[in-house]
């Protein structure tokens, strides 16, 4: 068995060594990157290095973190500087045990960073400053720092940080003896954390329970602890649950000891042991073992005391053992129960030396009480009487303070309840008056709202009718304008055909008998151009052939005179159209084909006209460069698309244009039959 254990111990040692080698390699690699980089990249590697060796004294964490903070400030990376400063401050206080040095870092940094940004990080820095001032017993400075931390947390709108800092304020006020102020701050912290992070809310409530207990309000303290226990049973985190239940059962066991309820004391200690050994904190385990040893020994339960002492002795052989509070007193009670009074006296004096200069007054008077008992058993009545007198003096002093604070608490509670009662009475009277006023004002309000509603409805009807009239007038104007254009085109086409056309025809016939070929060619070209203009102004083919054949003819004409490849599938829909609609649709087709030839840069075009159930559908599609239809409509110079839209409305057709740049254009017309 020893061989197997030695083997696994060797493997564990090798694993740790490998991890250290990997860490050393990573540190060296990051240092090389830092030296070979500049600006933002260098700051990134410095940030990584400081984070990697955090809390590692052997890797020079202190100097690495300070260099990172200085360079971050130089690069105006204030947030990063503050983040590393918070970690470094915690390291200096907790690992190095030097709160003065931590405060030097804080004061130096606060003179270099702006106070109007990064509020959450500033709150963290002032929180650490408050903790360091508290450790140095500079309580007024501690409260001031926590107050600033709270203000910055409020500016950052971080409710959890607000609750944490308010909890610290309550703790310091309790140390300062401000019972009412501490209780108020702790209650406020509890309410904030209960809303933002319920699994943190137990901390201020626990401090408040201890505060109540220290001031003689044991019933209130016990009630509060039982509430915390019930809340903790519903926690999601098992770690939090075990830690909270351990602390509440342990604190209540201590209170039961002070009250002389030894059975309850042992019962709560047995409960706290279950959870202390699940927290993975050696301190909690040792703390509970020491408390159990003391309780069993004081109450003569020697078999259980022996078992607990055996556990402690086994722990002393391990490297993770350290003396916790009241260890010497517990061992003293054990030796006293065994009849070893001299050993008990030595251990009792050692305990007294540990607590005599602290503010743990309960521990001081318990040490005096025990020493009075042990010296009495040794027959040293003088020393026994001396310790007994000190024991009663401190106990009386504590009870006097507790009574005063308890009276102050209940007086404040009475005044608060009295004030609340007066406020409730005043609220009732105000509510009655408000009800009467509401009843009187209701008819006025409803009457005014009714009149306003009627006026609003009338105004909306007028606006709607005015809008309709405006739209109708605009539509009539568009139809009349287009109708006038068609009439004028017909007149001009007829005059060109009957007047200028006849004369050009006569000129062309006479030029045939002449010898000048150029004059003959010019006459014929001018005549053909005139006929083309005349056909455009007034499509004679539409009257002679009908809409479908006229569209085919115009497509064939464009196809013959351009490089664009045309395909068409045109059903005969003439019987479904009157003269007006035929003309408007034909003009739309003319405009679309004209736009394609002039602007689209298309290589192929397809035209489809078909009759469907209750509709005629026309689709013209090209593979040209495309355009934005909305921009064309808004463009005052683009009359073509506006004319197409207006003609579509006159014909009773719905126009839809799909076009994307470099993706071609598709124009669809749907007209109900």
TrEMBL record:
It comes from the Bacteria. GO terms for cellular component: membrane. InterPro entries: HATPase_C_sf, HATPase_dom, His_kinase_dom, Sensor_HK_TwoCompSys, Sig_transdc_His_kin_sub3_dim/P, TPR-like_helical_dom_sf. Keywords: ATP-binding, Kinase, Membrane, Nucleotide-binding, Phosphoprotein, Signal, Transferase, Transmembrane, Transmembrane helix, Two-component regulatory system. It holds the Pfam family HisKA_3. One of its GO terms (molecular function) is phosphorelay sensor kinase activity. Its EC number is 2.7.13.3. The chain crosses the membrane at residues 442-462. It catalyses: ATP + protein L-histidine = ADP + protein N-phospho-L-histidine. Residues 1-18 form the signal peptide. Residues 527-673 form the Histidine kinase domain. The keyword DNA repair does not apply. This is histidine kinase. It comes from Poritiphilus flavus.
